[in-house]
Amino acid sequence: MFYRPEHGHGLPHNPFNAIVTPRPIGWISTRSKDGRENLAPYSFFNAVAYVPPQVMFASTSAKEDRHMGKDSVANIDETGVFCVNIVEYEMRDKMNVSSGPYDQDTDEFALAGIERVACETIDCSRVAGAPASLECKLTQIVKLPGEANYTVFGEVTGVHMRDDCLTDGIFDVLKFNPLARMGYRDYTVVRERFSLTRPGE
User: In what order do the strands lie in the sheet with 37-42?
Assistant: First the structure.
């Protein structure tokens, strides 16, 4: 099968986000300039550089009550900071609750029963007990083609790692099993790993 996106795919559901998979989930916590807390998952998320460490996530839908699409992007545009919380399998249901299209006054931490704790380097909350959290300062927001597509880039200014996720000095993802997004309504979980040595190493 071949299709041109501008002509449509003719399938019951869009296959695009099932092709680029699995995708890590960035559980983005932000705080508005007037102090409202927000927490939302984004599966267009990844690390993009080592030195200095940098991450990105993309928001692709709009809300009538906020500029720049979603609450997360609007808050980051206002304050210049955000935190990426890593989602473990055990938190899948709470993460899902926080994904709803709530109004800007809704505190997803409270709605989903998620404990919060203050960040160290930025004025924002993070998910208490997350396997890892990355405190970030905004470097740029890029408007992408499409009505409500924005990509947010940030430099990591603080890193939290849960102590039980460290094994002999290595951050061990099998200690918490990261959740990842597949297509449609599907997710997957990391339970296995293997190593490869690069040519020349």
Answer: 37-42, 26-31, 81-86, 132-143, 150-161, 54-59, 45-49
Query: Locate tokens 């007990």: which residue?
Result: 129
| pLDDT tens figures, 64-73 | 766 777 899 9
Cα–Cα distances in angstroms (integers) from residue 152 to residues 70, 98, 127, 158, in the given order: 12, 19, 20, 17
CA–CA gap between residue 28 and residue 25 (Å, rounded): 9
SS3 assignment, position 197: coil
Secondary structure (H, E, C), 26-91: EEEEEECCCCCEEEEEECCEEEEECCCCEEEEEECCCCCCCCCCCHHHHHHHHHCEEEEEECEHHH
Q: Report how far apart, in Å, the C-alpha atoms of 174 and of each of 22, 41, 78, 117, 192 are.
A: 16, 21, 36, 24, 7
Instruction: Give the integer Cα–Cα distance in Å for 177 and 194.
Output: 15
Q: What is the mean pLDDT of residues 86-96?
A: 98
Domains of the chain: 23-189 (2.30.110.10)
Q: What is the pLDDT of residue 65?
A: 65
Segment 37-41 mean pLDDT: 97
